[in-house]
Amino acid sequence: MKDDTGPRGAPVSPGSPENSQVFVYDTTLRDGSQSEDVQFTLEDKIRVAECLDQLGIDYIEGGWPGANPKDIEFFRRIREVSLTHSRISAFGSTRKSGNRTSEDAVLRALIDARTPVVTIFGKSWSLHVEDILGISRRANLEMIRESCDFLKQAGRELVYDAEHFFDGFRENPDFALETLRAAEEGGADWIILCDTNGGSMPWEVERALREVRHSIRTPLGIHAHNDSELAVANSLTAVRAGATQVHGTINGIGERCGNANLVSVIADLVLKLETSVTSARELSRLREVASFVFEIQNRPLPKNQPFVGESAFAHKAGVHVHAIRKNRRAYEHILPEAVGNTQRILLSEHSGRSNLAEKAREYGIPLDSGSPEAVKMLSTLKELEHEGYQFEGAEASFELLMRSASPEYVPYFEIDFFHVRMEQRKDIGEGLSEATIRVRVGDRTEHTAALGNGPVNALDNALRKALGTFYAGVNEITLLDYKVRVLAGAHGTASRVRVLIESSMDSRKWGTVGVSENVITASLLALKDSIVYGLLKSGTVPRG
Amino acid sequence: MKDDTGPRGAPVSPGSPENSQVFVYDTTLRDGSQSEDVQFTLEDKIRVAECLDQLGIDYIEGGWPGANPKDIEFFRRIREVSLTHSRISAFGSTRKSGNRTSEDAVLRALIDARTPVVTIFGKSWSLHVEDILGISRRANLEMIRESCDFLKQAGRELVYDAEHFFDGFRENPDFALETLRAAEEGGADWIILCDTNGGSMPWEVERALREVRHSIRTPLGIHAHNDSELAVANSLTAVRAGATQVHGTINGIGERCGNANLVSVIADLVLKLETSVTSARELSRLREVASFVFEIQNRPLPKNQPFVGESAFAHKAGVHVHAIRKNRRAYEHILPEAVGNTQRILLSEHSGRSNLAEKAREYGIPLDSGSPEAVKMLSTLKELEHEGYQFEGAEASFELLMRSASPEYVPYFEIDFFHVRMEQRKDIGEGLSEATIRVRVGDRTEHTAALGNGPVNALDNALRKALGTFYAGVNEITLLDYKVRVLAGAHGTASRVRVLIESSMDSRKWGTVGVSENVITASLLALKDSIVYGLLKSGTVPRG
To answer: Which of A32, A354, A411, B206 lies at a CB distance of 3.0 to 4.6 Å from A253, suitable for a disulfide?
Structure first.
């Protein structure tokens, strides 16, 4: 560090963590995307970045323009998004050994990304320098120093990732330290010690960090991988030993066994180490963030995931349940609500009914938790969930379920019948998808037809066309997102299917759900709820 | 410890781990069964016990007869199984506060289980004693001492679990230590410090262990839970601080976020801490054991699980793949084979030409990484991935893509046309889904129809029916899993859709993919590849 204020202006000293703020650096969109089975579309990346910004993440590593040309588009698009907290970083390598620094394509691409922060990785392990790159150690040091200097001259905040640092430090500590010095001389604002292969033990991390701090003044960070199931432990140990930047990914995705799971790291840093990386309010959104990042990947959050998993505060053993009724601390190490989770008692309906009454109050529906209506509603809810309904992310369907249970409820429309067909001929090429539908509003009906890109799209078009003749408001409702998940996949193409739809009207957004063995029917159920909810909230009066 | 040999006769001193053997204690069948969604039948339990015995596990906690009467049957049955290594333990609590020790039903049930080992848990935390049990501290100490003594008199090896030890030690260290002394006075052979709520940090575990060793001579153990994602770290830290028994479950199942994952603990103990808890040969069966325990639960092993997950040694980034070809140590912290796993190269847009040539070699297709064919194939791959194709999990489609690029390739069949329809009438209830299809093999065609649960299922049925008249092998192909993912979801119901199918024939499994704006077409593409691949691998000759 050339001066004694950090990149954000706050004084940073290599003191104890209690004196220094700890910064969180998220690489979900870059290292996370190197996970098997993970692929983010450009839209996904923008949405995740917005979500991370709301969580209060300090740095978001958006991509690797040198390796993935698609990422160049991300860096362009993200400039149009107003982030309130996070700083975007572009990731790449030190210059290629044969190149002139100013002409190196990778470094140029990093500059062209026009991000406030740039992160480059360099080799700290003689094995990589000699066996893999086949260059001299001195050349490697020059590459590091010169690449850092070049990026600093361009006015970027610079994060230097010392790749394979702990392996390098174990086998050849002097050389490993020299590589860090080269980065420091080049002007790096941060030097991140990476356990790239994920094989380091916490005590090795602690020892290395303490040794490094004897000769390096630059603020240090930790970038751990989970190959030995120690990434979170290594991250916390590093912070305790003086690191002030922690790298990781949401839910621990990443190459091989993944990166340090930032969800657990953040929760532990705040609730156990009492470092203020997020506010209490932001922390209470942790579960939402964890679910969201997996939802857009159409993946379920592991139930037993620490802090945010569905089972994290679910109690099964009788003695546990009995004890927590007297005092939650008996079997809960933190308050579930602190991270946006809730306590669950398995095989008991007592807490079920109070949850329900809570929701009803939220919706403005009168419901007594002890009433027969509440008991019946809970029973319906459990039945639906057993069939595959999931109301997280589809609360509008749940609210409609509760409202429609009331005798005063007037439906907006009924669907008398529908028909969908799709054909494709090899010689013709384009397929044809057509839907017909007849809707009923009161004693009037509308029977119409529509085409579409596929059977679901055709049906959606037909439904809106028919309803538009009764309710103009239908045209104000936009479909934002459409997701399909096959449940209990082991029944092959005969499995049940769950469709989740996100809709919007003006600034309001809502989610609806439909479940059926048939993707068309499931989609129609979710579409129906989407439209009914939109009409309800816009104050439209049902003409039933 | 009354004498200075351990229960197994080997000298045990509270020295460094290098001097003492470390014993592994598995509670998969007891604590593991308290996991939400986990249920073991009696047969399951016997099979798991046999499997653990082969792995060289020292202790197997088979059940909790006081809480689960079904477990009584397990203890009877397991006596008929000849185990070569493991000792079975029955689990329970200290006597109830009001009871006479000799008449306590739980202790009696433990004796009646006739196991060589018995494990009981007692309260170490004043909160539990006062708030939950509502008894005096002195009464608690008596319960511990007398229960231990009673079980030792009955000739059992006795393991005492100090429940909530670290929480208790944090809030009231003197009382916590007194409870351990009570167990020692009662003759316990082992005293296990439990992080029951899973909220302890590794440095807290270390400090507590070192303090305990000042006043307790009995060999110590660690029983960690994963609520802070630190169970493995806490277990290793405890061993390093002098614990010689480690508790956990296979794959980390258990209450809430689970117990310490013994798979990772064992691998780390052997390969990193160099303690000999299993032989190298037994260690190489680790992946098999991890898979087996989940297989019988009909659950997949998480792909990113450390050491044994499918992705644990799977490399995606081009620079990683390039490096490991020169030296595996570049991105692998251990040899995958040491734990029964293998290295995998992933295909993706991060791939380079060397990945491709590697794959071609695997498939037995001649391809030079420098050839124009390779360049073209890579370009096609990146284009398809940009459209939404994902070949991870669908390698069969990729192999077919490579094969069909060859001029010698003979197709198995063509689809001339198909038609799918679905209708539902409100008054009738059940929907009707029907598909028709005409396939062509050489100069013959088959035109047929089929029904199904939905349009995709109907089309699947029609396709198999038609092809079955040409290739009997079609009937041997089973669909295992069917997944749908909507891409670029922000286009609502008009978005592109990706379908991934997993199929099997005999013991062979393979994955195929299809992408289209239309879920029917996408499914058909994936189904087509599924069948073609199955026919190809079964040696069926195309009749084109």
So the answer is: A32
